[in-house]
Structure to design on (927 residues):
């Protein structure tokens, strides 16, 4: 499901090599080599892989496990669990599957600690077949499940039926009346149930929210003694026939003031108006223009796989004239912040942020198409690890995998509620936008605002905060929490980090400041264009890539020098996509080795390598230099055993291939030893397209992929286990080498 | 000409003063930028003579402990790891309530002023008091023990940790908790 997330591999300790010459001939002599030299790296315990399940889904609107796949088509499956590695032996109906993309699994929460492996399994005929996984070290079968293979057209048809069932059909099913399908020109769609006759049902939809406790926004606390009514914008409204099992007579949507109207309504009918926590625009058949999206607010702690949408319903008997039916979603808290009733307004508060966001995106792209998305909120959603369907969601987050992909929002009163925290909502929606419309290779993991972190992490989180602020229309990222939601934190996006705080391409607050500044100064349109153009055509998602795309998207409004001027307060000194600094730029004293003790090469984001042309032999080393790198263990945020997302623990390389064939990559530490099992992730991308490339046949010390002559590639290496370096200092002299291995077998 | 120059110098001087004052204002404003979410707890810790959590000196077998959820990076978490386990003291006499002993461990503490704040929710209550605030010390495994009571199938405990001006709030269900 996350094939665009890049490729990751994990080393195997069983095939340690000690000398560079050995890597040219493979890993067969590892035992001798491992014993010959004192290994300065701590041993990593070996355990069998634990596969907890397989994810077959490829859509965000899915609810419950997917058990069917299409026939005669290669299927990428996602195995998830613990101790996973690329060397797992995976077969489907006895056919070997190829593994790639070992990466963090985001089903539970952003820091679940679980990993996933993508595996490409050959297409099979219609039937039911076993997917089997064996551990490469013990040889034991660790997982087996049956997967049903069905006709692809049937599967596609089922998909269309599902989409039709979850997207609102703006029209009427009254007998003899023409269906009036979703004109894209107007969100407000009054249905002509009986044109020219009958009555009208009209009304306003509102929802109640508390105000912030302080007017100067120095506190995120919610003040329940002061509330206001807000219009329910863009919400789906249905007219139901109460005398006929709530049959839907018509569907419309509220306008920006919360107003809705049904006309042509028969008199003396027992009816209901039902407001659904859903905002959507769907194109009619054959229509190719206009926005298309569908955001649904569901209760993840309800029983069953089909989680219900939140609704607000009101019954009445029609008069045949004009019936006014106003509906207000109540707050459910008393003036002191105690829960006293149903918290009806929470789902609509969340959707209000989404509505405003989509409206802003539409100003930049009137034909924007966004994937259908479930947003899960419950009064039981609390910050604890466990089953999401019981409310243990970890924290508010976006997950693109699992049985219930989507955005999860905290709702547990007196612990942490996020339904009124617009910055938090915008941030998580920003992660969704990154996934569906842009690109993120954020390594995830714990981090804070004053830490030196990897450039992709700082960009990923800073982008989420900035676009959240831009789309929610607030410069304040506020998060209320604790008893009666009376505590919390506030970040002002218009303020650069203070002196003494981490400030640069490695600090998420710096990135958030600069991106928010760009979005407010030059408008949202170039911001959105830069965001979407990052979907392809770059090496890795960092602030430098974004700035490069932003300048190109601004039609000359934002020059390089103007952007650099804006970036000065946050110590970002380049708009080159690879972050290359001019020779005149002074070294960053906050991270350089002389002033701060940081590793020597932290400002060099990419190492440019120049492989030599292959000479025709089966195995050949193609680089002897250019791939050396340091690991940094001295700066805050990168100085702990758990700080694998710190600055200096992810290193980036780029090169242009001078041949077409199979390219291999190997990595060694400063003592010319392979890194221990489970300590490396490697991602490979084609630079010109940004396409993630499958990285196959990990043999314990190296992996390989197909390259094309004159095409530029980038390699990202993340050392996952800083604790293997027992020293508290930096470690230089590590090396990445390119080589030509034995060619990949034909697919 | 000279007069004009003097006037200009005066203007520059006024501008400079304004700039300094403005700088001062913005400096003050900047301090308000990221409100320290732990400020209230820090105030309490200074006003009251808080006791420190005790050091857990046994070998830490994580297999015996439950690890609490980590908190989203977007929420600027404290970075402190918390582990917990419950012991049930049984039903209180003549009562529908069950008594629990909650043991908590805190690791990854690297700040001298780190604080743990524990309070009950969802129908649970602490024995003898409403909440507990402790200083937790860096470079050791800190241990706290909390006594709670709650009706069967109800109750939770919120655990707030603070260090370096960052705060995490996590929730622990009492054993047998059922969705309300």
């Amino acid at each position: 499901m996350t094939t665009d997330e890049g490729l990751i591999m994990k080393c195997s300790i069983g095939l340690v090599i000690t000398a560079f010459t050995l890597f040219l001939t493979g890993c067969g002599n590892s035992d001798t080599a491992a014993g010959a030299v004192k290994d300065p790296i701590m041993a990593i315990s070996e355990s069998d892989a634990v596969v907890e399940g397989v994810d077959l889904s490829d859509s965000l609107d899915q609810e419950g496990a997917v058990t069917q796949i299409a026939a005669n088509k290669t299927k990428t499956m996602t195995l998830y669990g613990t101790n996973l590695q690329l060397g797992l032996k995976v077969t489907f109906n006895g056919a070997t599957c190829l593994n790639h993309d070992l990466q963090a699994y985001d089903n539970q929460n952003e820091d679940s600690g679980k990993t996933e492996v993508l595996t490409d399994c050959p297409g099979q005929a219609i039937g039911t077949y076993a997917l089997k996984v064996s551990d490469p070290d013990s040889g034991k079968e660790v997982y087996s499940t049956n997967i049903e293979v069905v006709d692809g057209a049937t599967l596609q048809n089922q998909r269309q039926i599902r989409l039709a069932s979850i997207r609102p059909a703006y029209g009427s099913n009254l007998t003899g009346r023409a269906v009036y399908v979703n004109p894209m020109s107007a969100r407000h769609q009054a249905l002509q149930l009986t044109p020219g006759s009958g009555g009208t049902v009209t009304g306003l939809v509102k929802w109640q929210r508390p105000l912030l406790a302080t007017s100067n926004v120095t506190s995120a606390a919610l003040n329940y003694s002061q509330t206001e009514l807000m219009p329910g914008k863009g919400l789906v409204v249905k007219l139901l026939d109460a005398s006929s099992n709530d049959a839907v007579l018509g569907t419309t949507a509220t306008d920006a003031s919360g107003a809705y109207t049904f006309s042509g309504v028969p008199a003396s009918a027992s009816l209901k108006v039902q407001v659904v926590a859903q905002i959507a625009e769907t194109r009619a058949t054959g229509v190719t223009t206009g926005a298309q999206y569908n955001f649904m607010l569901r209760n993840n702690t309800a029983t069953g796989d089909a989680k219900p949408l939140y609704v607000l319903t009101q019954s009445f008997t029609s008069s045949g004239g004009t019936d006014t039916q106003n509906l207000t979603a109540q707050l459910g808290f008393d003036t002191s912040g105690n829960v006293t009733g149903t918290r009806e307004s929470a789902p609509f508060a969340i959707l209000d942020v989404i509505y405003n966001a989509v409206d802003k995106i539409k100003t930049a792209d009137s034909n924007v198409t966004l994937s259908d998305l479930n947003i899960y909120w419950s009064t039981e959603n609390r910050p604890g690890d466990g089953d999401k369907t019981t409310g243990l969601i970890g924290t508010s987050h976006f997950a693109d995998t699992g049985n219930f992909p989507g955005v999860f929002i905290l709702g547990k009163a007196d612990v942490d509620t996020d339904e009124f925290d617009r910055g938090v909502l915008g941030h998580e929606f920003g992660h969704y936008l990154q996934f569906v419309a842009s690109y993120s290779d954020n390594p995830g993991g714990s981090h804070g605002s004053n830490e030196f972190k990897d450039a992709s992490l700082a960009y990923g989180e800073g982008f989420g905060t900035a676009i959240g602020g831009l789309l929610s229309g607030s410069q304040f990222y506020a998060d209320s929490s604790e008893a009666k939601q009376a505590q919390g934190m506030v970040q002002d996006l218009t303020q650069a980090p203070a002196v003494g705080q981490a400030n640069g391409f490695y600090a998420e607050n710096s990135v958030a400041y600069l991106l928010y500044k760009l979005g407010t100064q030059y408008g949202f349109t170039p911001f959105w264009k830069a965001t979407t153009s990052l979907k392809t055509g770059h090496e890795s998602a960092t602030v430098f890539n974004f700035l490069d795309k932003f300048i190109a998207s601004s039609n000359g409004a934002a020059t390089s020098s103007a952007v650099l001027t804006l970036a000065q307060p946050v110590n970002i000194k380049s708009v080159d996509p690879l972050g290359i600094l001019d020779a005149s730029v002074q070294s960053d004293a906050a991270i350089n080795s002389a002033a701060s003790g940081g590793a020597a090469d932290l400002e060099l984001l990419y190492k440019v390598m120049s492989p030599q042309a292959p000479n025709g032999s089966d195995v050949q080393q193609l680089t002897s230099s250019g791939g050396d790198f340091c690991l940094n263990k001295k700066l805050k945020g990168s100085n702990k055993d758990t700080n694998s997302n710190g600055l200096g623990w992810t290193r980036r390389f780029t090169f242009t291939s001078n041949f077409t064939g199979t390219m291999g990559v190997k990595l060694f530490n400063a003592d010319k030893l392979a890194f221990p099992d489970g300590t490396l992730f490697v991602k490979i991308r084609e630079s010109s397209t940004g396409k993630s490339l499958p990285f196959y046949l990990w043999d314990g010390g190296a992996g390989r992929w197909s390259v094309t002559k004159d095409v530029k590639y980038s390699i990202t290496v993340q050392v996952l286990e800083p604790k293997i370096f027992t020293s508290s200092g930096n470690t230089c002299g590590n090396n990445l080498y390119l080589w030509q291995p034995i060619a990949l077998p034909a697919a | 000409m000279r007069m004009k120059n003097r006037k200009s110098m005066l203007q520059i001087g006024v501008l400079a003063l304004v700039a300094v004052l403005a700088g001062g204002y913005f400096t003050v404003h900047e301090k308000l930028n990221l409100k320290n979410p732990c400020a209230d707890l820090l105030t309490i810790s200074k006003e009251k003579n808080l006791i420190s959590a005790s050091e857990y000196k046994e070998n830490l077998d994580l297999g015996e402990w439950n690890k609490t959820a980590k908190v989203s990076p977007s929420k600027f978490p404290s970075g402190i790891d918390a582990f917990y386990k419950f012991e049930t003291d049984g039903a209180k006499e003549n009562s529908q309530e069950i008594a629990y002993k909650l043991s908590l461990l805190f690791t990854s503490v690297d700040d001298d002023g780190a604080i743990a704040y524990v309070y009950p929710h969802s129908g649970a209550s602490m024995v003898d008091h409403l909440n507990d605030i402790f200083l937790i010390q860096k470079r050791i495994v800190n241990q706290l023990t909390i006594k709670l009571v709650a009706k069967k199938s109800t109750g939770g405990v919120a655990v707030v940790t603070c260090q370096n001006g960052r705060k995490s709030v996590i929730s622990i269900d009492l054993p047998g908790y059922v969705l309300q």
Summary: The domain at 169-366+375-391 of chain A is CATH 2.60.40.10 (Immunoglobulin-like).
